[in-house]
């Protein structure tokens, strides 16, 4: 008899279920029994793509099965690799307790981690002083400098050439899309390093003493450094002067503009990040306009 009884047939069906405690409770209870872990009340965690719940002092992440329309096999192996690597490099991440898969109505992969008592940065941003932000930016730079170094290949993602990573640019003007593709083809990007790939305000947890813990490595890839730094500047910091000072130090605006420009053009989330933090896609008739708008945002925040 299956413990997971609902139907999953595409993303919409998964989207309706992945935060449902009653739907996942029998499956989670069985996994905890298998791993010989104490099972207590299930609580929600910040939603993402996969099913994530808190159970006592643990967090379980159940990856979307293939029937959801998402191939999360690579997400699972990527996160497993990235978390183990982060620990070796002295980066604070949740302690991995167990990992595996369970064959039920669907094949589910899972990770169980120790719960970190911290708050997402985006939830306490408004409480932070300028000095706090500078210090956090500086601490984060030390952590990313440890992570953002060359490493062995750990998935098949090609951030520059993979055509499947172009969907977020579909709504942009035709001239912009053409110029973007030509620019990426001809630009000499730096060597590929390990990048977390999604350092946003949900994925940085701050402890009471402002220790930074990094979570959710499922989008990690090997990419030029600008891939990481552009998202940090535009999405995590939203060009905030204090954060930027802490992270980028005295780097000139021209240099940071180029980091953001080049990084966003190759980032899997770049098309969305631009619309959310820079301007509507309809305003970008060509690449020069994007560069000018980034430069203006950085200048106005000085």
TrEMBL record:
Highest taxon in the source lineage: Bacteria
SUPFAM superfamilies: Protein kinase-like (PK-like)
Gene3D superfamilies assigned to the protein according to its UniProt record, in alphabetical order: 3.90.1200.10
Pfam families on file: APH
Limits of the Aminoglycoside phosphotransferase domain: 56-247
The protein's name: Aminoglycoside phosphotransferase domain-containing protein
Source organism: Lederbergia galactosidilytica
